[in-house]
């Protein structure tokens, strides 16, 4: 096992050694997202200000009720678990934490019985520490169950605090939102993803090329879980992680190809652009995959003039909308490509000869 790099502390090593203690077969099978799930808040990357606040809470205790919201795979569950572990310590953790997620029954009965019973339970904790109820994936709780929590949260707040994690905070009823501090997690930046992925590559001795890393980051769109999963799948399937292999694994259109198509549109070469589109279509990509890759590629293409870029994004946006409305044909995409070509053509080209 390679020593993890400085600053990344030893969570991975610890998880890893736990895995190898169970025998090498388990070590092999353990998904890297779990093997490298941060154990301490220090290891959670991104959202630095929010994590800094959580670290202070972990040190001083007196945690407020809180809601952490944000898109999937960016460390919400992880940071709540780290916080609980650091705040309460290993020994009290078992006694003083009740964790319920969407896989558990969380209807109104559970709120009335299990959560209430836990809130009433006596646990001896150091001063400033409270029992913790973690309600993960709270947006899938029914409104009724959330309503039932309102008074419970208030009555037992001297001894029990609540932490909710959810993807959409608007699925949490207003009354609970007003009782909680709301922390919003943003997508992770490319640099943050790269740093963590490099750390995992080093620990797992994976060969990764620069374009492989770029491909992982491009396809993950700020979702660390997806990036790590794609890294593992590519490493397991192909050995070497390069751009082509990553795009084979994630099965999305290769941005280089899409970029060539957008470039052809920019230069007004409609035949070339349509040919490339046809090739992508023949590879079996859905119109949704193609249009969303077109959007992301165009957004980050420096060689387009500012004006063209804005017009392109507008056109792609409208086509995306039509595709989402259900018109998912090649004709729809071809129309989009044709309109993109037209943007930079001179109006004289469309005048019919007299
Ligand atoms: N900020 C991060 N730093 C380090 N690793 C992360 C981070 N975010 C996610 N991961 C990795 O992704 C995995 C999943 O993260 P986590 O369970 O916290 O996601 P989540 O935000 O709760 O997503 P969901 O909304 O789907 O529940 C972790 O096991 C970890 O390996
Ligand atoms: Mg989660």
3D architecture notes:
With 354 residues, the protein is of the alpha/beta class. The protein has three domains: 35-185, 3-Layer(aba) Sandwich (Rossmann fold), CATH 3.40.50.300; 190-250, Helicase, Ruva Protein, domain 3 (Orthogonal Bundle), CATH 1.10.8.60; 255-344, Zinc Finger, Delta Prime, domain 3 (Up-down Bundle). The protein is 59% helix and 7% strand. It has helices spanning 11-21, 24-29, 32-35, 48-60, 76-96, 108-120, 143-155, 174-179, 190-204, 210-220, 224-238, 243-250, 255-266, 270-282, 287-299, 306-325, 330-343, and strands spanning 66-69, 97-100, 131-135, 160-166, 181-184. α10 packs across α11 and α14 packs antiparallel against α17 (330-343). The chain is elongated, with a radius of gyration of 25 Å. Mean pLDDT is 88; it is low at 1-14 and 16-26. Adenosine-5'-triphosphate binds at residues 33-34, 36-38, 44-46, 72-78, 165, 167, 188, 196, 224-225, 228. The site of magnesium ion (MG) has 4 residues, from α5. Belongs to the activator 1 small subunits family. Keywords: ATP-binding, DNA replication, Nucleotide-binding, Nucleus. GO terms for molecular function: ATP binding; ATP hydrolysis activity; DNA binding; DNA clamp loader activity. It is found in: Nucleus.
């Amino acid at each position: 096992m390679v020593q993890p790099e400085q600053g990344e502390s030893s969570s991975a090593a610890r998880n890893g050694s736990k895995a190898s203690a169970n025998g090498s077969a388990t070590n092999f099978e353990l998904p890297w997202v779990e093997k490298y799930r941060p154990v301490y808040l220090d290891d959670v990357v991104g959202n630095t200000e929010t994590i800094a606040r959580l670290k202070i809470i972990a040190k001083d205790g007196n945690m407020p009720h809180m809601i952490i919201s944000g898109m999937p795979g960016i460390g919400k569950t992880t940071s709540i678990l780290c916080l609980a572990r650091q705040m309460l310590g290993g020994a009290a953790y078992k006694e003083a934490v009740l964790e319920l997620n969407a896989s558990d029954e969380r209807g109104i009965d559970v709120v009335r019985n299990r959560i209430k019973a836990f809130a009433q339970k006596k646990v001896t904790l150091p001063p400033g520490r409270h029992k913790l109820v973690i309600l993960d994936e709270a947006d899938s709780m029914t409104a009724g169950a959330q309503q039932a929590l309102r008074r419970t949260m208030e009555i037992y707040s001297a001894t029990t605090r609540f932490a909710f994690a959810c993807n959409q905070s608007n699925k949490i009823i207003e009354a609970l939102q007003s009782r909680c501090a709301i922390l919003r997690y943003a997508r992770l930046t490319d640099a943050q993803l790269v740093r963590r992925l490099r750390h995992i590559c080093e620990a797992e001795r994976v060969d990764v090329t620069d374009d492989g890393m770029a491909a992982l980051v491009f396809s993950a769109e700020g979702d660390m879980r997806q990036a790590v999963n794609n890294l593992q799948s590519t490493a397991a399937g192909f050995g070497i992680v390069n751009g082509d292999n990553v795009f084979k694994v994630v099965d999305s259109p290769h941005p280089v190809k899409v970029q060539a198509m957008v470039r052809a549109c920019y230069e007004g070469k409609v035949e070339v652009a349509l040919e490339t589109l046809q090739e992508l279509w023949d590879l079996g990509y859905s119109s949704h995959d193609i249009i969303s890759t077109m959007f992301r590629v165009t957004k980050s293409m420096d060689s387009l003039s500012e004006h063209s870029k804005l017009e392109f994004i507008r056109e792609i946006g409208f086509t995306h909308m039509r595709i989402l409305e259900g018109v998912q044909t090649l004709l729809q995409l071809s129309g989009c490509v044709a309109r993109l070509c037209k943007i930079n053509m001179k109006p004289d080209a469309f005048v019919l000869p007299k």
